[in-house]
Amino acid sequence: MIPVLIVLNAGSSSLKFQVFDMVDDAEPQLVWKGLYEGLGGSAHFVVKDNDGAALDEMTWSSGDRIGHEEALMHLVSWLRSHQEGRKLAAIGHRVVHGGQSFSAPVLVDDSVVEALEALVPLAPLHQPHNLEPIRIVRRRLPGLPQIACFDTAFHQTQSDIASLFALPREMRDLGVRRYGFHGLSYEYIASTLRDYDPRLADGKVIVAHLGNGASLCALKGGVSVATTMGFSALDGLPMGTRCGAIDAGVVFFMLREMKLSPEEAERMLYTKSGLLGVSGISNDMRVLRSKAASDQDARRAINLFVYRITREIGSLVAALGGIDGLVFTAGIGENDVATRAEVISGLSWAGFSLHEAANSAGGPQITFGTGPTAWVIPTNEELVIARQTGRVLDATRERLAS
Ligand code: AMP
Questions:
Q1: Contacts of 210 (CB under 8 A, 6+ apart)
Q2: DSSP code per residue over 200-255
Q3: How far apart are CA 308 and CA 236, in angstroms?
Q4: Among 144, 146, 206, 233, whose CB has the most other CB atoms within 10 angstroms?
Q5: φ and ψ of 132, to 5 deg
Q6: Pairwise CA distance, residues 302 & 291, whole Å
Q7: Closest by alpha carbon to 306, among 332, 273, 270, 335?
């Protein structure tokens, strides 16, 4: 029997999954991937093979009341009827916040669930959804190992100074500090740099994870030394619907002068700001690009996005003391030729020279000449979760055997 892992990434009304074969010490092999969306309403399920060909699909009406629990049990029974020669060995979960305690993936037990629940106030819009499937599996499939893999853990290598806010000491004691996010993506990129250029793996690299969520990470020798995200996933770059870094005084203005409740202010900053808020049109870069020539607000949203990326890269170059390479990844970074061109044009001071044809072709290398290099590298957060899950399972087995 081949052991298989399910990798889960749960959102408020969605459940993304990938299933990997785990053969001895080999790299996890993707077998199936899919998605439940519209959970709690009219739910839809689709599963594809590793070439992206659809294998199965199903739609439920809202009267069927398909939530996360029903979706998970449907997935497990779909697997049972398709997993010939395979046996479910564990589930690996994406968990956005590991706080100060979790600097590595961890086998979930009661005390871990309790510690992760205590972190909900630090990531109120993500952490509860990440924890829900963990609780469901503990209830419905007791005994199945679950491993929590954290978006924050990769940044635990940052110095005390890089993670400090200039706030009174008691705030830090409460856990108010820079954590950083998108760590699973950055770990994947760091693991792959040597395949592109050994000088990147050993050097000073900035990774631009530009998706609906967006952040930058400064890597020195493949290790995180600084990032644009901070205490919550709101900080740093403007994103699809999140504001990125703003003056904290704006929040007081929202509460005191606009009389918004904390929940209304939070909703505005998380879901109505960023590309959507500035353009008033969409959080989707493809839509904004298609309207940019005729719509000033679409153009303004893109210009702000590019300006902030370029400015923050300057800050991270200073934190690194130089730059050898820049990597673009995630939905916009991997696909939007114009965003890459505009960012690199804003970085000519650092010696970057865009290779236009290579950029249009999607890379991997999109610069020429003797300056620092820029690259397009597709991210793979699910593979990192599968790797981490496999490692924790092996370590647990060894511990039990000794
Ligand atoms: P992600 O969160 O990584 O899935 O990225 C979502 C973002 O990537 C959205 O803003 C999309 O508009 C953007 N995106 C995806 N494909 C393309 C594309 N072909 N060109 C430009 N932007 C894209």
A1: 237, 309, 328, 329, 330, 331, 332, 333, 336, 339
A2: HHHSEEEEEEESSSEEEEEEETTEEEEES--SSTTSSS--SS---S--THHHHHHH
A3: 9
A4: 206
A5: -60, -50
A6: 11
A7: 332
Q: Is residue 333 within 6 Å of ligand 1 at its C-beta? A: no
Which of 151, 235, 324, 336 is an active site residue?
A: 151
Decide whether any atom of ligand 1 lies within 6 Å of the 212 Cβ: yes
CATH class of 2-150: alpha beta
Q: What is the pTM of this model?
A: 0.95
What was the pLDDT predicted at 83? 82
DSSP codes, 342-356: HHHHTTGGGT--B-H
Eight-class DSSP state of 367: B
At residue 364, what is the residue type? P
Query: Element (H or E) spanning 88, and its range?
Result: strand 86-95
279-316 pLDDT, tens digit per residue, is 999 999 999 999 999 999 999 999 999 999 999 999 99
Binding site membership of 284 for ligand 1 (Cβ less than 6 Å): yes
- The pLDDT tens digits of the residues spanning 215-250 come to 999 999 999 999 999 999 999 999 999 999 999 999
Q: What's the rounded Cα separation, in Å, for the pair 271 and 283?
A: 10
Q: Is residue 151 annotated as a catalytic residue, yes or no?
A: yes
- Secondary structure (3-state) at 49: strand
What is the C-alpha separation between 34 and 142, in angstroms, rounded? Answer: 24
Centre of ligand 1 from the C-alpha of residue 287, in Å: 10
In the chain, which residues fall in CATH 3.30.420.40?
2-150, 197-381
The closest of 206, 238, 207, 209 to 332, measured between CA atoms, is 209
> Which option is the CATH number for 197-381: 3.30.2350.10, 3.30.420.40, 3.40.50.10700, 3.90.1150.10?
3.30.420.40
- Ligand 1 centre to CA of 121 (Å) is 29
The number of helix segments (H) and strand segments (E) in the chain equals 15, 13
